[in-house]
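WARN no homologs supplied; continuing
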Amino acid sequence: MTTEPMRAVPVPVPDAGPPLDYYLVLPRLDARDPASTVEGIVVEEFTRHHDLTTTGLDSAGWTPDAGWWSSPALSLGMRTDPEVLARIVPTTRREAEDVYRALGGGQLPDEPLLRTHFLDHQPIATAPPLRLGPAQPPAGFHERRVYRVLFAKDLRAEQVANLRTAWRTPTDGTLTSAASGRLDAHGDQLTWDLRRVGHSLAWCLDVTALLRTDATAALGSTLSELTNVLRQHGLIPVTTERFS
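OK structure emitted
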């Protein structure tokens, strides 16, 4: 399976809404047939609060025999069950279209129609922002925000190296950050650090935004773009939290 080229630095597009997330479901290891490498498709979309934190998840799955079905249990397993995680591959809409057609589904419905299969919304608990770092922004900025995007699955060493190159991570970066990057746009400054968290296969992306403008829409686009870059590398987003 192929992935689309990764852009080195995300470019905010304030008027563009994020597309749906697509995943391929592989057969269980003991049931895999070389003639059938994909069992089905999962389509997801996070809902978010106005401050960009995650409030819930909508999802639908499709298999050739059952058609479209609501998939909250599968979406939960994609983030918590190692056996399910091993069978899930993040993909692009273009590849999902090819797989859907190859499995006999015809033309993949457009995204407004796909959303009509989101029947069981999964709320994700939210809390007021915690404080991580100084309470006041540096001089010249009116606001400081810190976000953490949590991911399931793992990254290979070569994937981390690819991210370091794409994000132009300084060679003298901190040991706690596997890869980092920076974006300056219209006076706003965004920096991010990718770290492994916990003792399981999990990663987080910490994004710090120092704002001179009212850039919530652009910040949302950047968070989406960074999250999608990590999806292209095989990680599965779990939630976006805010720390300040």
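The CA atoms of residues 12 and 191 lie 14 Å apart.
OK
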